[in-house]
Amino acid sequence: MHFEYTIMENDFANAGTASSAIKKTLKHLNIDANKIKRVVVAVYEAEVNAIAHAYGGTIYVDIDGEKIIVKIADKGPGIPDIALAMQEGYSTASPKVREMGFGAGMGLPNIKNNVDDLDIKTQIGVGTEITMIVKF
Amino acid sequence: MKIKDIAELLDATFVTGESHAEEEIDFGFASDLMSDVLTLKQSDRILLLTGLCNIQTIRTAEMANIEVVLFVRNKSVTNEMIEIAEEENMVLLQCKYSLFRAVGMLYSKGLSPIF
Ligand SMILES: Nc1ncnc2c1ncn2[C@@H]1O[C@H](COP(=O)(O)OP(=O)(O)OP(=O)(O)O)[C@@H](O)[C@H]1O
Ligand SMILES: [Mg+2]
């Protein structure tokens, strides 16, 4: 199964619509509730990041009998130092993002904790591609 | 505690999900930080108490499998929030007390902390 979702720049009101759709799909497939939670928490964090720290992008979802692969590709500005960004507590979030309950620097570490495999590719001025895999 | 007993204790009103009033809640968690709520491993029978009242609160609860959310200090819930909450079968409660007071009252009545 393959799905794609567009994340619009600055579209905070719709942050979570892709994660919500993925949750419904996985429920229909009778995937274990804890696994679903791990997937959607990780995708939601990445979705919020693509709006809070980037200019939107696209989410690509592939599901087979054994796993789900989710790739979130955003339109930049890229992450200058991935190791630093992965550190709990590091955040460059704007006041607007903080007002919405985000910006504690916990998202990327939380993604890592929830998925079986995480790969982050980034290019300054071009964008960031986060690929995560959760095995069923 | 039954959801209806929580509502009664805090003089809270149901915004959505009153039909779930008889269901039991065992744990409470209070935070205005959604990144923090998203790190919870547990999700069954949790009440989230929060002063953060926006669409991200509802989405966070949805992803974290939290089915009951209590907004303190009479924060106004928007129609958009209600729409998603109803679609997800969520219970939304609203009370006038502060987060501190609401948490204190529930804790002293035996609602358990997660940590
Ligand atoms: N897609 C992205 N594009 C550019 N920078 C990013 C992206 N994702 C994360 N970052 C950078 O990495 C930092 C840490 O991200 P992380 O998700 O861990 O925390 P946060 O989003 O700031 O806060 P939280 O996730 O707790 O709400 C961000 O503040 C930002 O500087
Ligand atoms: Mg984040």
Descriptive key words:
heterodimer, A: about 140 residues, alpha+beta, Heat Shock Protein 90, five-stranded antiparallel β-sheet, 5 helices, 5 strands, about 35% helix, about 25% strand, globular, B: about 120 residues, alpha/beta, Udp-n-acetylmuramoylalanyl-d-glutamate--2,6- Diaminopimelate Ligase, Chain: A, domain 1, six-stranded mixed β-sheet, about 20% strand, binds adenosine-5'-triphosphate, binds magnesium ion
Outline the fold blueprint:
The complex is a heterodimer of chains A (136) and B (115).
Chain A: E1 2-7, H1 17-28, H2 33-52, E2 57-63, E3 67-74, H3 82-86, H4 95-99, H5 107-114, E4 117-123, E5 127-135
Helix pairs in contact in A: 1-2, 2-5
Chain B: H1 3-9, E1 13-16, E2 27-30, H2 34-37, E3 46-50, H3 55-63, E4 68-71, H4 79-87, E5 91-94, H5 99-108, E6 112-113
Parallel strand pairs in B: 2-3, 2-6, 3-4, 4-5
Antiparallel strand pairs in B: 1-5
The structure holds adenosine-5'-triphosphate (ATP) and magnesium ion (MG).
Adenosine-5'-triphosphate binds at residues 45, 49-50, 52-54, 74, 79, 85, 90-93, 102-108, 128 of chain A.
Looking at this structure, what is the CATH superfamily of chain B?
HprK N-terminal domain-like
Q: Please tell me the overall pLDDT of chain B.
A: 96
What is the strand content of chain A?
25-35%
Shape of chain A: globular
Largest interface: A-B, 24 and 21 residues
Under CATH, the topology of chain A can be stated as Heat Shock Protein 90
How would you sum up the major sheet of chain A? 5 strands, antiparallel
N to C succession of SSEs of chain A: EHHEEHHHEE
Strand fraction of chain B: 15-25%
CATH class of chain A: Alpha Beta
List low-confidence stretches of chain B.
none
Q: Tell me the number of structural domains of chain B.
A: 1
What oligomeric state do the depicted chains represent? heterodimer
CATH topology of chain B: Udp-n-acetylmuramoylalanyl-d-glutamate--2,6- Diaminopimelate Ligase, Chain: A, domain 1
Count of distinct structural domains of chain A: 1
Total count of strands of chain A:
5
> Which architecture of chain B per CATH?
3-Layer(aba) Sandwich
Question: If helices are DSSP runs of H or I spanning 4 or more residues, what is the number of helices of chain B?
Answer: 5
Could you give a short account of the major beta sheet of chain B? 6 strands, mixed
Low-confidence stretches of chain A: none
